[in-house]
Amino acid sequence: MAIEITASKPAAAPQATAATAARPRSVYVYEAPVRIWHWVNMLAILVLCVTGYFIGKPLPTQPGEASANYLMGTLRFVHFTAAYVFAIGLLGRIYWALVGNAFSRELFYLPVFTRSFWQEVVAMLKWYALISREGHTGAGHNPLARIAMFGMFLFGSLFMVFTGFALYGEGEQAGSWADRLFGWVVPLFGQPQDVHTWHRLGMWYLVAFIVFHIYASIREDIMGRETVISTMVNGYRSPKE
Ligand code: HEM
Predict the structure, then answer these.
(1) Ligand 1 site: residues with CB under 6 angstroms?
(2) For the segment 141-189, what is each residue's pLDDT rounded down to a tens digit?
(3) Where are the alpha helices (DSSP H) in 65-189?
(4) Ligand 1 centroid vs 92 CA: distance in angstroms?
(5) Which residues pair with 26 in a beta bridge?
(6) Does pTM top 0.70 for this prediction?
(7) Ligand 1, atom 39: nearest CA belongs to which residue?
(8) Gap between the Cα atoms of 225 and 26, Å rounded
(9) Cα separation of 234 and 117, whole Å?
(10) Domain 26-58+71-233, architecture per CATH
């Protein structure tokens, strides 16, 4: 039976090596704000991808009075609503990294100057390539997951917020808060159509991360020694044996 401890604020995330045996007890990894943010964020990204896809490739014109058909307007409205949820959620997540436990900070930096980090990267690559039988057993994220979260998810999300609000500022017109805060992004890319193209490309960058993220989570949940998916529901990383 797993003994549960409520180490809500450990001094540092344990640095387990790939060869470390599974811990005999559950560790409280994801605090409630991180878990709520994860699932709300997932829904927001889903809505943003679907509505964004159709903004870029609009549906055929609907027959009848224009006032009776506001499909593209509704899609844009839903996109912008989800965009606010996404952006405010990201700000909230940054705040929680400052006040939450050590695991809540793992998304925001990579210990690239630590030898053990790179040793674990190699160990994880072997594990994913089915060369090694030993996966990651630390309570936090495995190093490959951290590289993907930092380089793909975090960078991708910030990219979408900056390019998205730059486009939003175009619609809100010169002098609007979005234009004043993010207007400088447009000349960085050239002209507004270029920002549209990069914003769209950013969506596929995030989709690539999501595909890898879902595959790795399910794979670890099945093949790893510790819980993965349920950890994002109840917060605890527990040994399966
Ligand atoms: C996961 C995050 C997001 C995804 C996947 C996403 C996806 C997309 C896509 C694919 C387009 C169409 C681009 C094109 O081909 O023209 C688009 C347009 C747009 N997005 Fe996003 N977006 C995201 C976040 C945001 C955010 C945070 C904002 C901020 C308000 C935003 C605002 C806009 C605007 C203003 C447009 C152009 C609408 C138009 O021209 O009618 N997006 N988005």
Answers:
(1) 45, 48-49, 52-53, 55-56, 76, 79-80, 83, 86-87, 160-161, 164-165, 167-168, 171, 196, 199-200, 203, 206
(2) 788 889 999 999 999 999 999 999 999 999 999 999 999 999 999 999 9
(3) 71-99, 115-128, 143-148, 155-172, 177-182, 185-189
(4) 21
(5) 4
(6) yes
(7) 55
(8) 12
(9) 27
(10) Up-down Bundle (1.20)
